[in-house]
Design a protein that fits this description.
718 residues, mainly alpha, 3 domains
Length: 718
């Protein structure tokens, strides 16, 4: 049984919560699924028909392809003549304004020839017709040849090239003015453009009716297939015409069977499909990772990731916006692997890909490609500790997906340089896969966002936190150097134990570096920081001494909050002594007051006891390493006796009752402690003494330094 799957009894609240979350998830995914009927026939043009003989069960038209309809629409567009309404009052209004301007004082001295020329040209312009610049540009862009101008009930066709826009009308105003003896410069000073206003307005309703009439003349079909007529037989090569007939048959069949009952069956099928996947997913967590179920942040992250990808895929398919291969599906197992574990990452990826595939018309290639890419991503990201690993994961997973998709192309008979688009490899898909691989690189900055939103801690963050040059650890090394050395030793030992029993080594190493930061506030009261034989506890009451020792846990939690350290570090600080006693002061006080009823709370830590395997490792390592310093003699027997006594006492006191650690793990930890402590505190060999007169002249450097140290010590004592 997994260490993370400790047996427990489900309460009705836990069961109800799982049911409600699963039901809401299923309802949301099914709600956004497309409702279109799916193809029951899978075939390729240029390949043999894989089914038996197909005979038409009913009459149906052979519908034209989209390309054929588009070509016919382009042909009909040449006959399209939009309607424009002539507005005679516009010319009347502008002519009245022009004559008033010519009678004004500013133009009163204008010669009669100019007046006559201007009025005649303005009339000619309005007679030809003026169209606004916007409408004129649209006609040119749509390659419209003619327009229909109507005033009342009659409409006449006019070539577009003869029509004028305001700029062309203004240029027409001065045409041939010089040949008539009129000064163009004098005419331009009159601001005649003020009297040029469009008198043809686009009539949308008549134009749309004309366009719909033209489209109505097009036939959506190019023939008929009669009931009983053979369509295709097994072994026949599927031609372009056969494919068109088969598509028409499928379309007609859908139209005949498109009822509310069929839609209900589609919804039922989608519901059952999604429900089976979600139920399997829930069973997986209940069977193998119950610790995630009890963690709200784990459930939230999994549900969010499992929702985002199916909904995004459905949105792209429903609106035909982009290829689904542009979506970086590999990013999902990357996130789950970084913040959880490999098995959960791959299982989550499998379920997510299956949920996404239900929206696709031909899902086989998609499922195979994405599953292999996700598997490689999980394998290459076993331990994220540096940025370059994300790049390697993106490269390996992308290369795998390209190879898998290429193999499927070759299996279907497609060639790199085929004769038609149906037999040629579609390189667009490969480009999309490469783009999605590039997007996977953005998983690295998104990890920080997930850490802040859900409270997770990635291995990259753990590595950054374990840097001893960080301000808090550097201050610990300066204020409490003995505690700092103790923490370093505990970190190394804890990491070794974690590696042996399969726990998270980087996590426990980082927690060990910070577990005693609270000692900085009263560094001199802890033995490892005392120098010169001065012990402040000699002048204190035993209960006060115990209070100071116990307070380093609460002080450490306060420092962790002040420096905004992750929650897991605060948990290591609070659990590394559990609810244990400060035994030295407790036993001393009990011996001095044998008849007094002792208040245990005065000599015990607040806890809680460890609730993870990593916290249990730290608790054992901290006690063993600290006690090992007090041994008078370092022998294999004394070290083994010390390790067994301390850890057996912790087990007997029930400190590990609520954490997922086994007796086998504890036994392995003992062996690691014994081997490492023997290495750390090995017995040094003594140097032999010379028996001749050269003894004083042949002293080693180490012996000279030792003598100097002893002489300095004697001087300082005197």
């Amino acid at each position: 049984m997994s260490r993370y799957n400790k047996p427990f009894t489900h309460g009705w609240r836990e069961v109800l919560a799982q049911v409600l979350i699963a039901a809401a998830f299923i309802a949301l995914v099914v709600w956004f699924q497309p409702r279109g009927s799916r193809s029951l026939m899978h075939f390729d043009v240029g390949r043999p028909w894989p089914y038996g003989q197909l005979i038409a069960p009913f009459d149906f038209p052979i519908f034209k392809t989209d390309a054929q309809l588009a070509h016919e629409r382009d042909s009909v567009r040449k006959l399209y003549e939009p309607y424009f309404e002539l507005q005679p009052q516009t010319e009347a209004e502008q002519m009245t304004a022009l004559r008033a301007a010519l009678r004004s004082q500013s133009m009163s001295d204008l010669p009669l020839a100019y007046r006559t020329f201007i009025e005649r040209r303005i009339h000619e312009i309005y007679e030809i017709g003026i169209i606004s610049n916007e409408e004129f540009q649209r006609l040119r862009a749509d390659s419209i040849q003619n327009i229909r101008v109507f005033a009342g009930t009659e409409a006449t066709a006019h070539p577009v090239w003869q029509m004028l826009n305001p700029k062309a009308a203004y240029d027409y105003l001065f045409m041939n003015a010089d040949s008539l003896g009129l000064s163009r410069a004098k005419l331009t000073k009159l601001n005649l453009n003020e009297f040029i206003v469009p008198n043809l307005s686009y009539d949308e309703s008549k134009s749309d009716a004309h366009w719909n009439e033209l489209l109505g003349s097009l036939s959506p079909s190019s023939g008929m297939v009669l009931a009983g007529q053979g369509i295709i037989d097994r072994g026949n090569i599927v031609t372009e015409h056969d494919a068109q007939i088969l598509a028409s048959y499928e379309r007609a069949a859908v139209a005949r069977n498109s009822t509310s009952r069929e839609n209900s069956l589609i919804v039922l099928g989608q519901f059952l499909y999604v429900a089976v996947i979600v139920i399997c997913f829930v069973f997986y967590f209940n069977l193998f990772r119950r610790d995630y179920i009890s963690s709200g942040r784990s459930v939230s992250l999994i549900v969010l990731l499992m929702l985002v990808y199916p909904l995004l895929t459905t949105f792209l398919v429903r609106h035909t916006l982009l290829s689904v291969y542009l979506i970086p599906y590999v990013m999902l197992p990357v996130f789950v692997r970084v913040f959880m574990d490999s098995r959960t990452a791959f299982f989550t990826h499998v379920c997510s890909v299956l949920l996404c595939a239900v929206s696709l018309r031909y899902p086989f290639e998609f499922i195979a490609t994405q599953l292999m890419g996700g598997l490689v991503a999980v394998y290459t990201l076993r331990e994220l500790s540096e940025r370059s690993q994300i790049f390697r994961t993106a490269i390996y997973s992308t290369a795998t997906m390209l190879v898998v998709y290429a193999s499927l192309d070759f299996l279907h008979g497609r060639q790199l340089l085929g004769d038609t688009s149906l037999t040629r490899v579609d390189f667009t898909i490969y480009q999309h896969i490469v783009i999605s691989g590039v997007l996977v690189v953005f998983a690295y900055p998104l990890m920080y966002l997930i850490e802040r939103l859900f409270g997770f801690t990635s291995n990259v963050t753990l590595v950054e936190l374990s840097n001893v040059n960080r301000p808090l650890l550097r201050r610990l090394s300066e204020v409490a150097p003995g505690t700092f050395q103790h923490s370093m030793q505990v970190a190394n030992l804890s990491a070794e134990v974690a590696l042996k029993i399969g726990a998270k080594a980087q996590l426990v190493r980082t927690g060990a570096l910070y577990h005693d930061i609270g000692k900085m506030l009263n560094a001199a009261f802890f033995t490892e920081n005392q120098a010169g034989g001065i012990n402040p506890h000699d002048n204190l009451d035993l209960k006060e001494s115990a209070r100071i020792i116990i307070s380093h846990v609460a002080d450490g939690e306060t420092l962790a909050d002040r420096h905004e350290l992750p929650r897991f570090i605060r948990d290591f600080i609070s659990t590394h002594h559990g609810k244990g006693l400060v035994k030295y002061f407790y036993i001393t006080y009990k011996n001095q007051h044998p008849d007094e009823v002792i208040d245990y709370s005065s000599f015990s830590y607040a806890g809680p006891d460890p609730f993870t395997a990593e916290q249990a490792i730290l608790m054992m390592t901290d006690a063993v390493e600290a006690s090992a310093r007090s041994l008078k003699e370092y022998t294999e027997e004394s070290i083994a006796e010390l390790v067994d006594r301390i850890i057996d006492t912790q087990v007997a006191e029930g400190h590990f009752a609520n954490c997922p650690i086994t007796f086998q793990d504890i036994s392995t930890a003992k062996e690691v402690f014994k081997e490492k402590l023997k290495t750390i505190y090995h017995t040094r060999i003594s140097y032999p003494k010379l028996q001749n007169s050269e003894e004083n002249t042949s002293e080693t450097t180490e012996q000279k330094d030792e003598k100097k140290h002893k002489s300095k010590s004697s001087l300082s004592k005197s």
